[in-house]
Amino acid sequence: MIPRARLEDIDEAAIRQLIDHGVRESRTLDYKEQLDLSKDGRQALAEDVCAFANTVGGDLVFGIREADGVADEVMPLVIPNLDEELLKLTNFLRDVLEPRVTGSLLHRAVPLAAGAHVVVLRVGASPNAPHRVLRNNHFYLRHSGGKETMDIHAIRTAFAFADGLAERAFTFRNQRLDILRNHQGPCHLPVGPLVVVHVVPTLALTRRGAARRRRKVTMLCSSRRREATNR
């Protein structure tokens, strides 16, 4: 994704920084010189969205020419009725993937001082992954060099991992409640009834790398609690 940028905060300066800093395409960032709204163009874009949604999400930036994968020049997009066209496009992209990509697909038309726009299409990591493109029944993944079709092993692994989403959420909640019951939390809690609200980012439960990081954090916290007890 565009480094350290909320979608609503992306402006022309943020776009120019991609070029000034030589930001390279990556697993979460892809540059497109044009926004092809033809039938074939939209179908090709559906594959890109599918790949991002099945991996860790990312930004498609339309209106930037790249050279060997590095942002090179702004190519302003002149598209009549741009807002209407983007709404049609996002609705199309939601409908051509199965299961549908819903709230994790957003767009922003970034106005340029010289006129026209650069368009950013942000795809979130989907809790409903894996998705497939209905036109060809293919599943896609994103890597640093672009997208690739998932093989049968990758598809099986993705479905197996998705099936355990609810179980991982309940397991996380129960582990945290046990910590609070045993008075091992990061701060002292008063004795008596408690109302505990857990806010868990979907990404924390849908990606194995994030799961490994959570285990490391849990182990580190446990180690520090033991050290504090032994003092």
TrEMBL record:
InterPro entries: Schlafen_AlbA_2_dom, Schlafen_AlbA_2_dom_sf
Transmembrane regions: none
Cited Pfam families: SLFN_AlbA_2
Record-annotated Schlafen AlbA-2 domain positions: 25-150
Keywords assigned by UniProt, alphabetized: ATP-binding, Nucleotide-binding
Superkingdom assignment: Bacteria
Gene Ontology MF annotations: ATP binding
Protein name (Swiss-Prot/TrEMBL): ATP-binding protein
